[in-house]
Amino acid sequence: MEYKVLVKLFVPEIENAYEAYIPINKTVGQVSLLLNHMVSSLSGVYPAESNIILYNRRTNTPYDRGILVRDTDIRNGTELVMIS
Predict the structure, then answer these.
(1) Cα distance from N-terminal residue to C-terminal residue, the chain
(2) Phi and psi at residue 34, in whole multiples of 5°?
(3) What is the pLDDT of residues 29-77, one digit of tens each?
(4) In sequence order, which residues have a C-beta less than 8 Å from that of residue 15 and are 6 or more positions away?
(5) Cα–Cα distance between 11 and 4 in angstroms, integer?
(6) SS3 string of the chain?
(7) What domain range includes position 39?
(8) Is the pTM of this model over 0.85?
């Protein structure tokens, strides 16, 4: 799994948390769509939207949708918060 990192994703709107491997060679925008589809298929209640924002849970900083994941501080064990 050299090109993926394991993150913990918190979704406060449905009060759930998930662990997921995300690719580091995709943009944050592409990854947020992948995570949104994962959450909506697993929960059955979370609506799929295109304006998802990912935040670092520790530093409370949002990630720019156009930046590659490998160019951010997202690493194995990073805790993310997904807000729509």
Answers:
(1) 29
(2) -60, -45
(3) 999 999 999 999 998 887 777 788 999 999 999 999 999 999 999 999 9
(4) none
(5) 21
(6) CCCEEEEEEEECCCCEEEEEEEECCCEHHHHHHHHHHHHHHHHCCCCCCCCCEEEECCCCCECCCCCEHHHCCCCCCCEEEEEC
(7) 4-83
(8) yes
Q: What type of residue sits at position 37? A: H
Give the CATH number for residue 18: 3.10.20.90
On whether the CB atoms of residues 23 and 29 are closer than 8 A, the answer is no
Q: What is the pLDDT of residue 70?
A: 96
User: What's the domain count of the chain?
Assistant: 1
> 22-31, pLDDT tens digit by residue?
999 999 999 9
Question: Residue 1 — very low, low, confident or very high, per pLDDT cuts 50/70/90?
Answer: low
